[in-house]
Design goal:
The complex is a heterotetramer, with 2 copies of chain A (333 residues) and 2 copies of chain B (210 residues). By secondary structure, chain A is α/β, with parallel strands linked by helices. Chain A has helices at 11-22, 84-93, 108-123, 153-166, 171-183, 232-247, 267-283, 314-321; strands at 27-31, 34-38, 48-55, 72-78, 100-105, 128-133, 185-191, 211-214, 225-228, 254-261, 287-294, 304-311, 324-325, 330-331. The N and C termini of chain A lie far apart (40 Å). In chain B, α1 runs parallel beside α4, α7 runs antiparallel to α8 (152-169) and α8 (152-169) runs antiparallel to α9. Classes of the chains: A alpha/beta (333), B mainly alpha (210). At the C-D interface, β4, α2 and α3 of C face α2, α3, α4 and α5 of D. The complex binds adenosine-5'-diphosphate (ADP) (2 copies) and magnesium ion (4 copies).
Chain lengths: 333, 210, 333, 210
């Protein structure tokens, strides 16, 4: 394991500290319990937005704290959901009285810890709504599992719900648009290589030189199945097809196409995947109205990518285009 | 003779030792069917419990368990943090103010712990989770407590042994809860890390009563 | 070699095509000869800015085409400088009569090819100025070599000269500010792993599990020397110290601190490096007035990073802050 | 007997074959002291030369070399593209309108090519570049041409052999130009890829005259 770290146990502490130093104009970092808050918080009258989860997915979630997106992010240990004693003060810090929305990726740990924090916050008089993100079509038979995982769609939920909160939507409206994004977004990922959790010191799984793992999550956990290496177009089809069919996309639909890098894949390769996906959608009569390409929700240094498609309506498009000013996503300001 | 606060502190101390010793093993178990953090999480959590116990020495067994619950809840994270947190909290509540825990109360507290895990995690037996260690453990504990001689050590030994067997029994199971469930068929043939850490904790409870 | 590609020979073609599809609102891609031009070009009365170089450094240079930065980018084959028959039409496409600045990283290939293109453009009546970027302090005895390489500083030259052109500076002024940035910027990089050029199929060099390469360039070429693995703070010191001393930084100086990922390093690790670098600069009385952290000039999937420090003056700071709207860098608009 | 346009086309064809055959070897040479692209660049360039020759068959040796120069310039990129482009362009100019090249003109053309490379790249002998293949080659060619029997094949053979020895002579050199110069001492012990491709091209010139 070769990493630019000092001590496996200090990775999150030091990284978040550096993040706070680099973006002191946008965020405030509280070290213990650890959470990241938008510079001006709470924003009077605004619904607060809090998300969080294990670390190792950077820029998610800390990189999305700022105007038009999250009010606070709560980083757990690497690939480990944060705890209620972090989530609660983050929630209180961004509560202006208009209520707070928790955006939670659907993993048992995240759900349980946010659930506890929400109860505690409500006991302190803060109204909480929870938007659960579960866009990963790789999880099959989700009735008999912990359910679908929250992956790439999370970024889009955070952006669009964040814009709704910023324009002054009330608590229920912000939660509703978050849910609507979640209902209209699907994702699937592939790993060409595994990643190494710093405290584990060895890769999460082993892939042969000619193997890839289809249906990967974002925690270095193995995926749906392992297949021999294919070319980029073939892999793209394997990711895009289930996304399109699960979403029930039809000719005439407008979508946002999001090709995400898992952390160790060159941008040039992401554009090769984007090219194929955009061509295939166009062939099906689907209009790619918005796009996003890059490392936005990662698994440390994993090589691979995920494809996320969001079926847009006019309101979602407007909210997507609305100004955002965070360390990792910025436009219109 | 029942179990006092000294036992509770020894239990937690032995648990912390077990988590440190088995840290790598638990990480390794969490690797093929999870995300390689269970040992790290549990070790971090129980180290924090040790710090808390030193800071505010508890007066009753229940106080020791409650402090453990709050610390695990706030330091472990992941699925295991809230589950173990709830387990210790419910056990503490079941113990009440007693400074000396008898066999029946002990069995009831273990049952409360298991029920807490089920209430939070909604897992059933056979889902390949820590519940598969806890359910046989509380059944064995209840049977041992019902024997009549009131020996708390027998209750704890019975629970530990059953939990260990329960952990082994997860090997062939297909996971339906937690991260391992994403793997479907591929989860078969691996032991559930949470079931193993549960067995370690229950073995520590028995060790503390020696 | 596992990559999200179809054919090693088509990597640049397909990637740039995908890039053009994803950013059709900002750029136009010409496929053969290949170059990327800002959507509205030439901008009447504005000095044109053209840069280019081998591919594999994405988002450099195509990602920096747009308002306030480059007017055109010319991508060569992977790690191979582009040719005059690409550079010339790109230059002509962005020439409004106010002249064109070529921003050239100091590599023999880039210099020779841009030199030829500049001659040809001048023969067609376009005035050309060339800003040569050579900020890499890892190259020693540069009198007896091809000279220092252009690395991280290139991004800063492109941004600041681009802002000068956008506000209406004339040809000589734009070239002068570009030169001034180059004179005040220094960089040094480290590789934890090598990268694999698609057509070569094997890594550019081999590093043992406990070795790192200090003073790496951006072409997968080996660096200055190889040392045993160290922790992040130690590595940061090895990169920052020569940069600071070569730049002759003094207490009271204002700088832009840029920690760049080589393509395969998680963002969280870059922030650990940033933390140490910011702390060390602060100890020396140097004020980090601006910062940039992320993958901005890469070597495919190489793991590692580079540290770039730019000594700022008021004008450079103003131009850095000026609006920019490109696929990879955007603010103020 | 001199060299006509047929020879020129055969030269370029054999060069293209040599680049395709030695593509991997040239990439490998460029790996330790460069950026692993020289073989790829040269192969791509000479393949394009073949296409151009088929599209517009040249009428004179100079026309063949000029077309080669323009194609290499626009297809090779990197350092080698402009250097070889200039070399072929200067050689073409030196040949003028001749449809049949004699030994003296040939030697002069080779000299012009080398001078073009030096003019563009500013490398001196001993800098570990293609110049270290070309300089001994033109010296040997001049000597062979001066022999008096006017055999163009002897001129080309002398050039090819000297270039090959020149390429080998780069092994112990410390690079002072091009990418390898960044390595300083560590460039010692590796052969310069551009010197090797130069020797291959000159060997092809001799082969074409057989
Ligand atoms: N719904 C659940 N009910 C009971 N136990 C669960 C449940 N989900 C997960 N677990 C237990 O938690 C363990 C994993 O804990 P840990 O690795 O610390 O958390 P995470 O899965 O969030 O990384 C599993 O081995 C399993 O025993
Ligand atoms: N200044 C120079 N003068 C002469 N030859 C040079 C010079 N710089 C580089 N070369 C030659 O170019 C070769 C490298 O070509 P190539 O790999 O295609 O280009 P690049 O170095 O841009 O990747 C070297 O092996 C060397 O022979
Ligand atoms: Mg976890
Ligand atoms: Mg886990
Ligand atoms: Mg090159
Ligand atoms: Mg090369």
């Amino acid at each position: 394991m070769k990493k630019l770290i000092n001590d496996p146990k200090a990775v999150v502490d030091e990284s978040v500290e550096g993040f706070g130093l680099a973006h002191a104009d946008l965020v405030t970092v509280f070290p213990d319990p650890k959470y990241i808050v938008r510079k001006v918080a709470p924003v009077a009258g605004k619904v607060g937005l809090v998300s969080g989860g294990g670390s190792g997915h950077e820029p998610l979630h800390g990189g999305y704290v700022g105007l038009g997106m999250l009010d606070a992010a709560v980083p757990g240990a690497v690939f480990t959901s944060p705890t209620p004693d972090q989530i609660l003060p983050a929630t209180l810090a961004v509560s202006s009285g208009a209520g707070v929305v928790h955006i939670v990726k659907n993993y048992t740990g995240d759900v349980l810890n946010f659930e506890t924090a929400a109860e505690l916050a409500q006991a302190e008089g803060v109204e909480i709504r929870t938007v659960l993100v579960n866009d990963d079509v790789a999880v099959q038979d989700s009735l008999y599992t912990a359910g679908r995982r929250g992956v790439g769609g999370t970024v889009l939920v955070e952006k669009i719900a964040g814009a709704a909160a910023e324009r002054g939507d009330n608590l229920d409206a912000v939660a509703a648009i978050g849910d609507r994004v979640n209902q209209n977004v699907r994702s699937m990922g592939v790993a060409l290589s595994a990643c190494t959790v710093p405290h584990a010191g060895v890769p999460s799984f082993e892939l042969e030189e000619n193997e890839i793992e289809i249906g990967i999550g974002i925690h270095g956990e193995p995926g749906r199945h392992r297949i021999p290496m294919e070319n980029a177009d073939g892999i793209t089809d394997r990711l895009l097809d289930p996304v399109v069919s699960d979403l029930g996309l039809a000719s005439g639909d407008q979508v946002l196409l999001f090709v995400n890098g898992m952390g160790g894949t060159p941008q040039s390769e992401l554009y090769i995947v984007y090219r194929r996906a955009a061509q295939k959608l166009a062939e099906q009569g689907v209009t790619v109205a918005r796009s996003l390409v890059g490392n936005f929700i990662t698994s440390l240094e994993m090589q691979g990518c995920s494809i996320t498609v969001l079926r847009l309506d006019d309101e979602m498009t407007t909210l997507w285009d609305a100004p955002v000013h965070t360390p990792a996503l910025r436009w219109g300001v | 003779m029942g179990l006092d606060v000294g036992w509770a502190v020894r239990w937690l101390t032995l648990s912390a030792q077990a988590m440190a010793e088995h840290r790598v093993e638990l990480i390794e178990l969490d690797r093929p069917i999870g995300d390689s953090d269970h040992g790290e999480n549990m070790d971090r959590g129980f180290k924090a419990v040790m710090d808390k116990l030193a800071e505010t020495p508890p007066e009753t067994p229940a106080a020791a368990l409650k402090l453990t619950a709050m610390t695990l809840m706030s330091k472990v994270g992941g699925a295991a943090g809230p589950l173990y947190g709830t387990a210790f909290l419910r056990a503490a509540t079941a113990l009440g103010e007693a400074s000396d825990v008898d066999a029946a109360t002990l069995a009831a507290a273990l049952q409360a712990a298991r029920d807490g895990i089920v209430a939070r995690g909604k897992a059933e037996s056979g889902d390949k989770t820590m519940v598969d260690a806890w359910t046989p453990a509380i059944e064995a504990a209840a049977a041992a407590a019902g024997d009549g001689d009131g020996d708390v050590r027998k209750v704890l030994l019975a629970a530990a042994e059953a939990a260990e067997a329960g952990a082994v029994s997860t090997d062939p199971m297909l996971a339906r809860k937690g991260r391992a469930s994403y793997l479907g068929e591929r989860s078969i043939g691996h032991r559930d890390p949470g079931a193993v850490s549960s067995a370690l904790i229950l073995r520590a409870a028995a060790g503390a009563a020696e």
